[in-house]
Inverse folding.
């Protein structure tokens, strides 16, 4: 055992050397590897040569209601020798969290980054330069707009007047290591308000959830900065107006399609272009964001709202024996509006959220996993076809056997 520990320690020392080499690599972009990252690696090395009687894990994130570890991630192994509740053994390394006045430390490059050749590095630089070009152009001509017109550079369309492009880009800036640009976005978020505007500004609740709310939560998860969680909670409070409430009858059975987050009493259950139904994707694509928001701030309301919607869909699928849920729902009752099934437009992300919800639960919500497996089994039986030259494809929907919807292309990655 001593020999094994020494060998393992040698491996870890090698990893430290790689990390130090990576920190030199970081000078290319004018930054150093964050000191707290090196401290974590050093403490892991020290711990590896100490006798360990119990399984333990290294907690790389500060775990608190304000900054929980990523959902579904195991932060500790239960001490199997004792059945007592709370007898968890951990080797905890609390990383230093930047304050709201500090510039964010860059995420350390992965060990694989050190093995990049010149060609791979050129590609990475090109992606980073393209992102920097977008950000600078947007800042110069359309700062604060939800969209920027790609040719003129002028302000584009409206997605609720929340600076959607900023919210939707924050996590990418952080991952790309563009710390100055990230700080500019953070400062803009700091100034955000959801005061009532002098005009209506309805937008898709679905888009506001997966882009606006998710953007703020991702920035919080990566940086640990309270400002992003504070604004996410404010946005989540507005979105709650559009969700059905358990035991309340006579209103929408599913989340509304459109809402003005500055005046959340102004909403549309269904938009004018499809007044007769709610889409499966609109209804069933909010579990990940609202669950994380509840975990991060300690308010159970958000997750409870998402859980209710997901339970209604699962109950309906089981009751009608339709694992591959129909892509449209009756807006005012827990019922399908049509028999058409699809994993493309109007339905796609619901099936994605089944699997993500299971993973996010720490692999404990087996009902979500079972529903996902049964839906994929029916998809393979009813929607997978063969082209004339023998290529497999997924049909657009159950009524179109010779076409494939481009939104279906995510299925390969999900599977």
């Amino acid at each position: 055992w001593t020999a094994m520990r020494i060998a393992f320690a040698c491996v870890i020392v090698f990893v430290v050397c790689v990390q130090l080499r990576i920190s030199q690599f970081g000078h290319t972009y004018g930054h150093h590897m964050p000191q707290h990252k090196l401290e974590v690696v050093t403490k892991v090395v020290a711990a590896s040569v100490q006798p360990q009687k119990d399984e333990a894990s290294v907690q790389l994130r500060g775990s608190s209601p304000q900054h929980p570890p990523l959902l579904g991630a195991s932060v500790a192994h239960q001490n199997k020798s004792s059945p007592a509740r709370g007898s968890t053994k951990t080797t905890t390394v609390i990383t230093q969290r930047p304050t709201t006045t500090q510039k964010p430390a860059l995420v350390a490059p992965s060990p694989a980054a050190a093995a990049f050749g010149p060609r791979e590095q050129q590609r990475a630089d090109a992606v980073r330069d393209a992102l920097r070009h977008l950000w600078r152009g947007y800042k110069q001509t359309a700062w604060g707009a939800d969209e920027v017109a790609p040719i003129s550079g002028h302000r584009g369309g409206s997605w609720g007047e929340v600076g959607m492009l900023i919210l939707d880009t924050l996590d990418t800036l952080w991952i790309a290591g563009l710390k100055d640009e990230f700080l500019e976005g953070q400062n803009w978020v700091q100034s955000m308000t959801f005061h009532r505007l002098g005009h209506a500004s309805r937008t898709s609740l679905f888009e506001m959830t997966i882009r606006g709310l998710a953007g703020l939560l991702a920035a919080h998860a990566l940086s640990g900065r309270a400002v992003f969680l504070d604004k996410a909670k404010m946005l989540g409070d507005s979105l709650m107006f559009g969700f059905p409430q358990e035991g309340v009858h006579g209103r929408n059975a599913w989340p509304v399609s459109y809402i003005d987050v500055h005046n959340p009493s102004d909403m549309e259950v269904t938009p004018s272009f499809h007044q007769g139904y709610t889409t499966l994707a609109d209804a069933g694509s909010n579990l990940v964001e609202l669950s994380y928001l509840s975990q991060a701030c300690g308010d159970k309301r958000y997750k409870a709202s998402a859980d209710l919607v997901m339970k209604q869909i699962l109950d309906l699928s089981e009751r009608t024996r339709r694992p591959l849920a129909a892509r449209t729902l009756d807006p005012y009752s827990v019922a399908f509006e049509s028999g058409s099934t699809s994993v493309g437009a109007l339905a796609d992300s619901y099936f994605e959220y089944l699997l993500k919800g299971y993973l996010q639960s720490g692999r404990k919500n087996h009902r979500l996993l079972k529903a996902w497996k049964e839906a994929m089994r029916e998809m393979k039986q009813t929607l997978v076809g063969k082209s004339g030259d023998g290529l497999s494809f997924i049909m657009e929907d159950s009524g179109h056997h010779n076409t494939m919807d481009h939104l279906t292309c995510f299925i390969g990655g999900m599977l």
Observations:
- Confidence is low (pLDDT under 50) at residues 7-108.
- The longest strand covers residues 384-386.
- The first helix runs from residue 2 to 25.
- The radius of gyration is 24 Å.
